Amino acid sequence: MNLTTVKEATTIILNNSVNFGIEEVDFINSVGRVLKEDIVADRDFPPFNRVSMDGIAIAEEAFNKGIRSFKIEGIQAAGSPQLTLKNTNNCIEAMTGAMLPINSDVVIQYELLEIKDGFATVNLDTVKSFQNIHKKGLDRKQNDVLIPKNTLISAAEIGVFATVGKSKVKVAKQPKVIIVSTGNELVEVSETPAEYQIRRSNVYTLVSLLENLQIKADTAHILDDKKTLETKIASFLNEYDVLLFSGAVSKGKFDFIPEVLDNLDVEKLFHKVKQRPGKPFWFGKKTVVERSRSAKTVFAFPGNPVSTFVSCLKYFYPWYNKSIGLNFENKQEAVLSEDFYFKPNLTYFLQVKLQQENGKLIATPIAGKGSGDLTNLVDSDAFLELPDDNSNFTKGQVFPLLTFR
Amino acid sequence: MNLTTVKEATTIILNNSVNFGIEEVDFINSVGRVLKEDIVADRDFPPFNRVSMDGIAIAEEAFNKGIRSFKIEGIQAAGSPQLTLKNTNNCIEAMTGAMLPINSDVVIQYELLEIKDGFATVNLDTVKSFQNIHKKGLDRKQNDVLIPKNTLISAAEIGVFATVGKSKVKVAKQPKVIIVSTGNELVEVSETPAEYQIRRSNVYTLVSLLENLQIKADTAHILDDKKTLETKIASFLNEYDVLLFSGAVSKGKFDFIPEVLDNLDVEKLFHKVKQRPGKPFWFGKKTVVERSRSAKTVFAFPGNPVSTFVSCLKYFYPWYNKSIGLNFENKQEAVLSEDFYFKPNLTYFLQVKLQQENGKLIATPIAGKGSGDLTNLVDSDAFLELPDDNSNFTKGQVFPLLTFR
Questions:
Q1: How far is A150 from chain B (nearest CA, A)?
Q2: A33 touches chain B (CB under 8 A)
Q3: Class of domain B333-403 as given by CATH
Q4: Looking at domain A6-21+174-324, does it have CATH number 3.40.980.10?
Q5: CB atoms < 10 A from the CB of A239, how many?
Q6: Which reaction(s) does the protein catalyse, per the Swiss-Prot or TrEMBL entry (chains A, B) (predicted)?
Q7: Over the stretch A289-315, which tens digit does the pLDDT of each residue have?
Q8: How near does any CA of chain A get to the CA of B42, in Å?
Q9: Do the interacting molecules here have an ipTM over 0.90?
Q10: Residues of chain B positioned with their CB less than 8 A from the CB of A362
């Protein structure tokens, strides 16, 4: 049997990323999305010489002439138009965030002042020009790029959008995704299964994994009937950008998915990957001839819960990240905490518990009961990716990591 | 001036966590929430002896008698009631996920079979009892606790909820939070500020930081007027569990928040922390006398964007985590990439860029322009917490980390 290696599978998937275009959203709803425009400074930051300590604004010249007691002319509040120091031997009380009054160039904080009878008195030998003043344009100049295109938006970017008045921002559009389970053995979560049935769970796990990427996926269930599968999948291929399947891709009598996809002209790019779990994974695409419509992408994951779970992290996540313009390389790594042996000539996705130790991320294997044991995932934080060219993995070695918490 | 240390501030905040109770939500909407019930197995897992490879089910006894060619009696599909192998010298084709037919105890996969004219022939010397069969109850027994109370829910838990039929789950209720900005200098994001004005940004940053915790906060803005502040804050104290302020807690003429909170019987637990940025941080609570209502908690952060941002991560996050029953200790750490000098006797929250190297998390300082420079956060991934008892920090040293991406 001709198995695709994990590396080959990854390359094929990344070479088939799809651009879903751009949309505009309210800035406050853009966290977790990918920015598709440069954000520039609408004015200098700070936009004026800004007082950065509460105190008095004076003219340095007056201080240098020996004046230490300053008559208070008024108060320069934040949010008020700029005042003018009329007599440069006087002072104006000035608040954090306020404009520096005209004719002043030094701010002395309240902690160093005594205020009495309308005079502020200081006991200092020297002051520095523009002390306690955040000078206009010091942080950024008007038209500087503050956030480049293709940045993943976090709370930090939200603050900048607000500051420069971007109430709407351009972001990568999300693909339309449907997650499809198949199998006569599956009943709904709210139902009580007969002895030979189980409840649907993989579609909901996938829904959650996609929600982590801000994708709201639809779901469907189709019974193991070739005609029904063909009709429904044809309509999904028409309506959605991405189809995720769980199950029916192996050697069983009712594993119709590869055949049905073939009948519907979905090109198989690979089937069966040199990995455990998730070997029967099938991946393909359907090129759409109409203009302005992009290719349809099909990830058909094996039906075992852990296979579906890890395949989504390992393949769908980077494919999606590349599609929307993010860096798609997984750079996460962890240190194996104990020796581990895995004989088959397959890449092994080992379930691990993570722990920080002296700035290092330590991965401890969690004994599992195979790819059917979803409850085992509850005790794990991540998968450590052990390569197929070795069977003996040693304590202290570093391997790529796929986290899900 | 009597400054509270970062450690003291943290202890006080954690000692004042609040239990917001429990609510029930649809399981599919529970990701990121904290589970408030034990999830138990509603039956054994697997619930029956489950075929784990597509192939034929036979009786081991027949194989041991020397039979290698088995007449096919039928097909045991997943999702079908259990069949019986009528003649134990025969076989039944059995699919992954199906019940093991009665009278069979071995499954041989298709890869090792030749099927012709209604017979399946194998060329093997031995088989193992229950090979390719995932035995009933092997993973978990009925009534086993699968997920304990107080687990933070991820996609892995969603799959288990579905499997055991928990269409609704009990989770920690979220606090009702309002985020309040003050200051006459602030205008709305969609407005064009006058020269002396700036746009509101801190409230939106805080909204995003709280969304990371699945909290949907309300927002408000109040001008620097003591009467208005008192009236509005009184009503917020009545309506909300938590009030977050940004600004008006320092020494300025219009920094009315501490005074107003005092007038409204909000007990000050500390004001001013030995840290940069964020020194003027004020924290307090209002005990509510009515039964069945919990205390009101007030975090009054300084108005500088970076001060607000880091204080939310450092103080609100662990307070909230402890309140809902999560482990609140920050265990994240990183390795300083270069020597760093910080003279003042304050805990310094250093903005850093993170990078993985051989399983280690390396933190590189990002030169900033002070706590007013929000755009600087865009270039950073986290804050490294440098303690106040030192000024010279050395390359390779490990410090606590507050991440925000």
A1: 13
A2: no
A3: mainly beta
A4: yes
A5: 12
A6: adenylyl-molybdopterin + molybdate = Mo-molybdopterin + AMP + H(+)
A7: 776 678 999 999 999 999 999 999 999
A8: 10
A9: yes
A10: 359
